């Protein structure tokens, strides 16, 4: 029997078999997620929670999601959680895992990079947040265990932040983003190395498989799903809230708000507008650029309207910092940075965060002033400058005095923008993606980006999102390059050109679920009480 009569070539049959296996795996994962969600809802109701009018769906590129089980009126409260259902660093301290950590280590406040760094000063100190990571990694997910059903639900989330990506996938990221990742990761792993393997040796029954990979995943779960505590709460760190962790992000199409989050009070969530049956419930993580979204949540938004790019203005180190001209230029840069709200790194250095909205009406004055200050500093070097036209700091010493001041400032700003764009186009290993042209565009890059958009574009609310490592890397570059191109447009044209803007949908389309877990009522709260504003 030839290949044609047996259903095609061996390669084609292999692809078909692989696709069928992937589909079967996806269906099994979705079924497991829904079973865990069902257990979670039963556990929540048993602890006094009220749940009404929503259901969990699983499957698809965006993972689990929360949707309306029926038409919901504006202001309808679909969830109210007792404070005891929230999982926070403080709530872990009284568990077996928390007690074991406290027997061998002294706790310090904080879980940020600063808190982790303070803990590293003395090897026996760990942060409260590290206790939560240990709990997420090691605690039992049995129904009878503290937060057991919630842990089972979280561990099936499929979250994948860059902290748990492979080395190859992380190398796809732009170099500036990868540098941020490595810096933050050193603090995260420092706490792991303080706790393990000593905890596993002292309490083998509590910490049987506490690997570095599991620690990375625990950090990713917390980073992706924590909610900031209410102002004035005794909880410094964020709190993990059951069921609300299923909601996806959209800063423009968000239809949910929540409030009352602390260890002392309950939490409620309601819809802010009428929501149709089958429509996804969304809330905003904040107006974040893709660098923040990728590091914190493991996804990126194509054509992110809130993208930001940091450009650093800095005087060369060989200029005379005692000269009057240098001081005048430094003060000029400092004033421009203050007007912009930029981060200053001492006299003669400031980082400006650029967004698309900054260039809607032309080149902002503070940017022009910053560039003028830097070109003025370069000009003040005069004949003392080297014969090199540039020494890598963006300042053209040789040409600064030959041009009119305004032209020199614009030329310097253009070089800074192009240099920043080429940094974005370089991967962590130094390779350039898609042979990117110095203009930050070009046919090779555009073909590559277009093809990837088609392969990795998941609709969430009114935005297409990238969820694979390659997609996240390219979506981040693409959105940040759009900001730089907008700035370059302003330099080349007195009136900014119309730029490509992402298409928006008025509201998410109604989706008919294929696999769901319904939540229609609960015993913990009177539904009439929960229809009131939070």
UniProtKB/TrEMBL annotation:
A GO term, aspect molecular function: protein-lysine N-methyltransferase activity
CDD domains named in the record: SET_LSMT
Lineage top rank: taxon: Eukaryota
Protein name per its UniProtKB record: SET domain-containing protein
Alphabetical list of SUPFAM superfamilies matching this protein: SET domain
Domain SET: 52-286
InterPro entries according to UniProt: SET_dom, SET_dom_sf, SETD3_SETD6_MTase
Compositional bias (Basic residues): 497-508
Segments of this protein annotated with the region Disordered: 1-24, 495-534
């Amino acid at each position: 029997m030839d290949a044609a009569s047996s259903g095609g070539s061996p390669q084609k049959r292999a692809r078909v078999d692989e696709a069928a296996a992937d589909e079967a795996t996806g269906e099994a994962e979705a079924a497991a997620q829904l079973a865990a969600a069902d257990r979670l809802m039963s556990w929540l109701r048993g602890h006094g929670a009220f749940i009404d009018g929503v259901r969990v769906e699983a499957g698809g590129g965006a993972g689990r999601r929360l949707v309306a089980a029926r038409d919901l009126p504006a202001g309808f409260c679909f969830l109210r959680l007792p404070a005891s259902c929230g999982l926070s660093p403080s709530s872990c301290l009284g568990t077996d895992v928390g007690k074991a950590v406290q027997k061998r280590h002294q706790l310090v406040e904080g879980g940020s990079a600063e808190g982790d760094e303070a803990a590293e000063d003395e090897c026996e100190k760990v942060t409260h947040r590290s206790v939560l990571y240990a709990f997420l990694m090691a605690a039992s997910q049995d129904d009878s265990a503290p937060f057991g059903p919630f842990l089972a639900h979280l561990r099936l989330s499929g979250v994948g932040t860059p902290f748990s990506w492979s080395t190859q996938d992380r190398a796809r990221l732009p170099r500036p983003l990868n540098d941020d990742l490595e810096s933050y990761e050193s603090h995260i792993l420092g706490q792991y190395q303080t706790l393990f393997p000593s905890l596993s040796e002292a309490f083998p029954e509590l910490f049987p498989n506490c690997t570095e990979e599991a620690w990375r995943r625990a950090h990713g779960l917390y980073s992706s799903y924590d909610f900031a505590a209410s102002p004035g709460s005794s909880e410094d760190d964020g709190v993990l809230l059951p069921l609300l962790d299923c909601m996806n992000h959209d800063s423009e199409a968000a239809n949910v708000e929540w409030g009352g989050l602390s260890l002392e009070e309950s939490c409620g969530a309601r819809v802010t507008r009428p929501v149709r049956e089958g429509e996804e419930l969304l809330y905003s993580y904040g107006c974040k650029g893709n660098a923040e979204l990728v590091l914190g949540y493991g996804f990126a938004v194509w054509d992110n309207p809130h993208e930001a790019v940091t450009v650093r203005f800095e005087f060369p180190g060989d200029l005379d910092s005692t000269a009057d001209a240098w001081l005048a230029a430094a003060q000029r840069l400092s004033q421009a940075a203050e007007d912009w709200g930029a981060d200053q790194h001492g006299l003669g250095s400031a980082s400006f965060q650029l967004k698309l909205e900054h260039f809607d009406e032309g080149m902002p004055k503070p940017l022009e002033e910053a560039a003028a200050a830097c070109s003025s500093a370069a000009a003040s070097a005069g004949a003392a400058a080297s014969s090199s036209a540039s020494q890598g700091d963006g300042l053209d010493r040789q040409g600064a005095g030959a041009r009119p001041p305004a032209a020199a400032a614009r030329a310097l700003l253009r070089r800074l923008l192009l240099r920043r764009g080429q940094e974005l186009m370089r991967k962590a290993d130094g390779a350039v993606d898609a042979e990117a042209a110095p203009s930050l565009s070009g046919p090779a890059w555009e073909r590559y980006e277009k093809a990837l958009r088609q392969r990795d574009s998941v609709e969430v609310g009114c935005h297409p999102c990238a969820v694979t490592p390659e997609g996240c890397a390219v979506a981040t570059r693409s959105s940040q390059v759009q900001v730089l191109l907008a700035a370059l447009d302003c330099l080349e044209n007195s009136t900014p050109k119309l730029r490509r803007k992402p298409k928006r949908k008025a509201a998410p389309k109604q989706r008919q679920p294929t696999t769901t877990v319904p939540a229609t009522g609960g015993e913990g709260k009177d539904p009439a009480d929960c229809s009131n504003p939070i």
